[in-house]
Amino acid sequence: MSEHCWRCFRPLKSCYCGSIVPIRTGVKFVFLMHPKEAFKQKTGTGRLASLSLVDSEILVGVDFSADRRVNELIGDPGYFPVVLYPGPRAFRTDDPGFREGSSGKTLLVFIVDSTWALSKQIMNRSANLHPLPTLSFRGSYLSDFRIKHQPKPYCLSTIESVYYLIRELQEGGAMDGSVDPEGLKTVFAKMVDYQLSCISNVRS
Q1: How far apart are the first and last CA of the chain?
Q2: Burial of residue 4, with CB atoms counted within 10 A of its CB: 0-12 exposed, 13-18 middle, 19 or more buried
Q3: What is the pLDDT of residues 4-30, one digit of tens each?
Q4: How far is CA 49 from CA 87, 158, 159, 200, in A?
Q5: pLDDT, tens digit, 9 for 90 and up, residues 172-194
Q6: Stated pTM of the model
């Protein structure tokens, strides 16, 4: 049985902790991670993103309606809570309503970390998330997740979603432009390259 890293929960031979660069964004990121993502997913880009983001948290579950920590964060008047989730009513980072709501408060972004189907399950069951504003991207992006088939070309991995959100928050003036999120892309690329090398070794 191989030894594991107790920080990223990966086998030591595929531990990426040495490539993680701490990023202080001034935004509170909270990853609502489905149990299948937390305990059965081998790639785990949400965990990599959380390890990279200073003061981020991972909460595991399916229905967060009665989750003490989620409700504590939502009820904190110092935060402006939003859910990163697409939809017709979703804010973009340059929308006046978004800028007004977040003014003077720390932006709190809940990120549902799972497959698209299971993400819908979490959103449907978690009644406390329903009243929160949702946030989506202004731009269109293509995933570099070459080892995993995405349901749609525009679907992104969790760590890529965080990266592009940071860039759009900076462009919209909602985050300090000096924050450098490139560490997210670097550790993601290392993970993808490692997985591709494993696949190549199996086939050879």
Answers
A1: 24
A2: middle
A3: 776 776 777 777 788 899 999 999 999
A4: 23, 7, 5, 26
A5: 889 999 999 999 999 999 888 87
A6: 0.89
Give one DSSP letter per residue of the chain, joined into a string.
Answer: ---B-TTT-SBGGG--GGG---B--SSEEEEEE-HHHHHT-SS-HHHHHHHHBTT-EEEE-S--TT-HHHHHHHH-TTEEEEEE---TT-B-TT-HHHHHHHTTSEEEEEEEES-HHHHHHHHHH-GGGTTS-EE--SS------TTS--SSTT---HHHHHHHHHHHHHHTTSS-TT---HHHHHHHHHHHHHHHHHHHHHH-
Contact by Cβ (8 Å): 160, 168:
no
CA dihedral 70, 56, 117, 182 (to 10 degrees): 160
Work out whether strand 79-84 and strand 57-60 pair parallel, antiparallel, or are unpaired: unpaired
Residue 161: exposure state from Cβ atoms within 10 A (0-12, 13-18, ≥19): buried
In whole angstroms, what is the distance from residue 153 CA to residue 165 CA? 18
